[in-house]
Amino acid sequence: MSDVFGIPVAVILGQLMLGLVNGSFYALLSLGLAVIFGLMGVVNFAHGAFYTLGAFAALLGLQLLGINYWVALVAAPLAVGLVGIVVERLLLRRLYRLDPLYGLLLTFGLALIAEGSLHQVFGATGESYPVPAALAGGVNLGFMFLPLYRAWVIAASVVVCFSTWFVIERTRLGATLRAATENASLLQAFGVNVPLLMSVTYGGGVALAALAGVLAAPVVLVNSHMGSSLVIVVFAVVVIGGMGSILGAIVSGLALGIIEGFTKVIYPEASNIVVFVIMALVLILRPAGLFGRE
Q: Which end of the chain is less packed: N or C, by CB atoms within 10 Å?
C-alpha cells in the first residue's frame, strides 16, 4: 500500500479500526447519558461509576459464582440497573423540582463514593477478565490483524445503540416516555404511572453504562478508576452530539472515536485533546450540539 503524509496506509487503517472500537464504547456510554438527560433532565455524573460497577459485576460473577461472559452480558446490566432504580427512587426523586445543579452534585458525590469504596476493597492495580473462548483469535484484514473480540464489541455496540434509538423514537413506549418529559401531570391524569417510568428510564440508562463495562472488561484492566478516566470524554461526546439527542450521542461517539484514532497517527500529541477541541468549536458555532435543538 502507498503512503499518506509519509505514513503507510496500513497503519492509518489499523488506527481507524482501533478508533472505531473506542468509538463504540463512547457511543454506548453517551447513549445512556443522553437517555437519562433527554427524558429526565438529570446530568448523571455517576455514569462512569455505573460503567465500573458493570465491569466489576462481571468479574466478581466469574470469580465467585462461575458466571460466564455471555450470562454476565445480561445479568450484570440488570443488576446495576436495579441499583440505579433504587438510587432514583430514594435520592434523585427528591430533587426533580429543584435546580438541575443539585442532581449533578448528588450524582457526582455518588460517583466519588462508589469509586472510593471499590478502591478500598479491590485496590487500584486492577484485574484482567478473560476473553470468551468463542471470541478468541482474530481475522486478517490485510492491513491489520483484528481480534474477534474487538469486532464483536463494535457489532454489539452498534446493534444496542440503534435498537435503543428505535425503541425511543419509533415505538409507543418511546412516545410515552417523551410525553412524560413534556407534561408529566397530564400523562399521569390519563392513568400512566409516571414515577415508575422515571425509575425505569434511569435504570435503563445506567444498565447501558453497565453493559459497556462488561464489554470493556476483557479489553482493559478492571479497576476502580476505569470509569472516572472515561466519563469526561463521554460528556464531551454528548455535548457535541447535543444534550439529550439519542441519535447525536450514537453518531458523535462513533465518529469521534475514529477521529481520535486518526489523530494518533497524524499528530499523537493531540489525540488526548482533539475531542475537547471539537467540543469547544461546536459550542462556539452551534451551542445546542450537532443534533440538538435550540
A: C
